[in-house]
């Protein structure tokens, strides 16, 4: 079934159209949800997110009856936005502009407070935008593209800055093994690995 046929079926017979939509695109939406929530959500969380995405798509179609969207593209946008919101809800991490408060609020009680503070001070001493990039990547689990979009820089520049910043952090934290330091950067989150 082509997308044009699927859109027509959604308009003419909403129940059958919705079933066909889910059948056709459930693998695609599941892949997006798993990539965003796989490290922090349960299988039930991922399944709920997938269901929510299809419901939001259907609601969008009801609100825009004359639109002829590219189904795959619209599902991708809805899935990404919804899963990012679910990620923040699951990790209970607010989207913030300033990361300085992290110095006094260790997210993981199993991390010794002075070690957490030492690490956060080292990260913040990198200066902006490097400290913000490191925190966005390892604390909030944002991708290079998401970080680049938020800071107005290219994703490959983000990757280069992360690499240089990790090297600087290793030098600053010579008392902590580099792999230990990188793990500490990610404390309290279900962030993606580099």
**CATH H-tier superfamily of the largest domain:** RNA polymerase sigma factor, region 2, helix turn helix motif
Strand tally, please?
Answer: 0
Give the % helix.
55-70%
User: What portion of the residues fall into strands of 2 or more residues?
Assistant: under 5%
What is the approximate shape?
A: elongated
Provide the number of structural domains. Answer: 2
User: How many individual helices?
Assistant: 9
Average pLDDT works out at: 76
Structural class: mainly alpha
Write down the Rg: 20 Å
- SSE sequence, one letter per element: HHHHHHHHH
CATH topology of the largest domain: Rna Polymerase Sigma Factor, Chain: A
State the end-to-end distance: 39 Å
Under CATH at level 1, the class of the largest domain stands as: Mainly Alpha
Low-confidence stretches: 94-114, 177-194
Largest sheet: none
Key traits:
about 190 residues; mainly alpha; Rna Polymerase Sigma Factor, Chain: A; Arc Repressor Mutant, subunit A; about 70% helix; disordered C terminus
């Amino acid at each position: 079934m082509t997308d044009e046929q699927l859109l027509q079926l959604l308009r003419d017979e909403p129940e059958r159209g919705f079933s066909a939509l889910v059948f056709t695109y459930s693998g695609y939406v599941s892949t997006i949800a798993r990539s965003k929530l796989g490290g922090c959500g349960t299988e039930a969380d991922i399944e709920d997110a997938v269901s929510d995405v299809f419901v939001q798509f259907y609601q969008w179609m009801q609100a825009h009856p004359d639109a002829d969207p590219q189904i795959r593209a619209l599902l991708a946008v809805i899935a990404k936005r919804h899963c990012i919101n679910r990620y923040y809800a699951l990790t209970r991490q607010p989207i913030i502009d300033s990361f300085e408060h992290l110095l006094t609020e260790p997210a993981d009680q199993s991390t010794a407070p002075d070690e957490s503070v030492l690490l956060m001070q080292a990260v913040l001493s990198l200066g902006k935008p490097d400290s913000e990039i490191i925190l966005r990547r390892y604390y909030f689990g944002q991708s290079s593209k998401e970080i680049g979009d938020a800071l107005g820089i290219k994703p490959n520049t983000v990757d280069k800055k992360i690499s240089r910043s990790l090297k600087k952090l290793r030098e600053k934290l010579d008392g902590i093994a580099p792999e230990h330091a990188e793990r500490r950067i990610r404390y309290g989150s279900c962030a993606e690995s580099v």
